[in-house]
Amino acid sequence: MSGIVWHIFVFAAILIFLIVATYRTLAIIRLPIHLRWELAPIPHEKGKQRYGGSYLEDYEWWKKPQRRSWIAPIIYMVIEIFLLRAIWRHNRALWPLTLAFHTGIYLIVGMLFFSLVSAVLIIAEVPPSVLNVFLAIVSVLAAAGYLLGGLGAISLILKRALDSGLRSFNTFSKYFNLVFLGALFTSGAYAWFSLGDFASEMSLFIKGLITLDAGIAASFPLSLHIVISLLFLIYLPFTDMIHFIAKYFTYHEVRWDDRPQDERMKKELRRLLSQPVSWSAPHVKADGKKNWIDLTTKKTNDEKEA
Amino acid sequence: MKKKLKLTDIAKDGDRPLTEINLDELVPLPPPYDKIEELPAFKQLTPDQQERLICNLDGVVSYAALPKPKTKKEEKRYVEQFVSGLKKLLSKENNWTFLQPLLLSIDYCAQCQTCCDACPIYLASGKNEIYRPTYRSEVFRRLVKKYGRPGGKLWAKLNGEDIELNWATITRLYELSYRCNLCRRCTLSCPMGVDNALIAREIRKLFSQELGWAPKELHEKGTMLQLEVGSPTGLRPHVAIDNFKFLDEEFSEATGIKVSTPWDKKGADVLFIHSAGDIISFPEGPISFSILLNAAGISWTLSSEIPGYDGVNYGVFYDDVQLAKVAIRHAQIGRKLGVKKIVMGECGHQHKALLTVADRVLTGDLDIPRENVMTFLENIVFSGKIKFDPSKNDFPVTLHDPCNLVRNLGVVEPQRRILRYLCPQFREMTPHGIDNYCCGGGGGLSVMSDVNFTDWKAHVAGRLKLKQILEAFADQPGPEVKKYMCAPCLNCKLQFRDLFEYYRVKEKSGIIFGGLGELAVNAMAIIKKPFITWGER
């Protein structure tokens, strides 16, 4: 593959990922504010999170300032994301498999970050002793990431295929996603083992991208791995695998959304309540013109008509 | 023998049940409830009922009035209505109320099945596939993708997730949405935050708001009756006042202190809204609050305006429009009386509806302060205005955590602080707090009793709860030791009434149930005779 093709391919893949992921994130953000549907424990409840309590436990809570912790939700999510707490607690048999799989992904993301740093250091012509430290980190993260991720992907494919509880819920795309990620990890492991110095070659490749070097090139094992990774990057935001974005909303915007009304919310609620309703059941009495306020604030004796 | 079910089976062979419930496959109960032959049999449908009713899920019928089409054309019309409702469920105008949580739960399930072992119904059933919280959700998810998304039909075929939408599918999905307690224990266990209970509720909502299908106890004799006459119990305002007058007199005599309940007192500090079911079925509860509030010198009142004397709001179980109508009426009544706050009686879903779920429809003047009864009672108990003698409550007591009060609102500790103070032999169940098991009547199921639904509630839905109640008293299992399970929720108590009668728990194990207010009054130093009479009153 010539230099210019690499540049186009890499930057196009990143761009597509960013555009689609942003679009889908905005699509979630733009959904209207919903009715409250919180679920304990809510970690920002200072002093109460330990047992799942909320500010509603306080006598005349509306007269007191809510004591919110900003750090507790972050700690909660860090543990959830990196140690998969919910699966540890509720599905212990799955935990080692999915932990290996997800840890593999995190390590590869870390490897990419340190490869980028190494590329910058190469451009800056830092002394080899400094650069070698970063290259060593890249090498270790890559080896561990590919190994764990690969094992995780294979074990999850087997689990999906063999576990009767999971099997009936499988679809083609569920297998395809795992196989795709498995191919990514396996091709990475192949590159790591077949190249003498995976870290240097990866960092030099990234340096070529940053400097728009027309002579950028990669060996076959690394090229194969990069092509699979870029195809996955393009594919990812179109799938439910971007649950790493959705998870922010399921937790922060639903489970932990215990905000009482404020002025901004009131204004938005008035707008939402003014929307026309077209549900067809007789008791709703909607005609496509009446809005939520019309339908829900009628005198009670009207109920006899339904 | 349990049948291995596929998701696509929901559309097949629509005249027959998909699965059956065998008592020997259910989770075993401890002695003396372990002998299947000594337990009431599961009521089977008569040949006439099988002919007349839709019974194609699990041999249980929760809604006898489900229409039975006579022609294929009629079936098709209902299926088209279902698709129309499904599209409205995905629209910002018709479903702004829950669109974001619904779409997040539809789009981001990883199918890890972690939630299944959190579901008390699935576990109690001996892991019957049909009761997996994911079975219902995944069928609906696939229908949403097929009929609610561009290119959905093609994608369904290509991805191997095609589910046929026919009469069998929609009727089974309807019934299946009422095999969930909406307890949200599954949600708590989900690493993604996917909410199967919400999906079950959204399915119910689609059927109610588009097709007009909802259990009669929740709709016709539930919210509709409440908005018309004041209460799903049929209790009209003047009858409610008369009932209370009678109860005031009776309990004045029984307790030796003057009991009086104020009505429609304008400018009172507190509007207290009981559930009318409590007034009728468990009157010690409401009366205990009359005694406590008067003893603490609180300025309070009940309301006789429709539906201000019944705080239940079944809309929270199945219908946003009904939910909003009832909640708005409650808030309007509070404003009209000029109270400083509304306090709800001991009823979990009433709390959830008025405190949080309806919070964002109570805009402007209707956003009146609302307080939960556990905190309110804790403030009274520890105010020093009433003298208590905890030795009067020196019998084994355990606490049932109503899901709506605890897991859904985070009201966990106030009731425990009261119990630790007033009940020397208080002990927790396992698990408890936000990890509790539902009573089995959650999600509106406790008031539903059509055909053979009560059998299902007693054998399946309430099974794990009964097991853990018995285990909480395992050190004194016999009926010779009187034991009290505190269940501060009307709906839970209705389920316990059915459950305890079904298994004869009082006779076999000496356990009764009641609210927290009763325990507080029983411990009042001023009360000469025991307020808790172990069912003798």
Structure commentary:
In chain A, 64% of the residues lie in helices and 0% in strands. Chain A is an all-alpha fold and 306 residues long. Chain A has 2 domains: 3-255, Fumarate Reductase Cytochrome B subunit, CATH 1.20.950.20; 266-305, no CATH class. The model of chain A is unreliable at 300-306 (pLDDT under 50). By secondary structure, chain B is mostly helical. Chain B folds into 3 domains: 7-211, no CATH class; 220-378, no CATH class; 386-522. Chain B has 24 helices and 8 strands. In chain B, β3 (341-344), α17 (348-356) and β4 form a beta-alpha-beta unit. The mean pLDDT of chain B is 96. Chains A and B meet through α3, α6, α7, α10 and α11 of A and α2, α3, α4, α9 and α10 of B.
Short summary:
Chain A has 306 residues and is an all-alpha fold. Helices cover 64% and strands 0% of the residues of chain A.
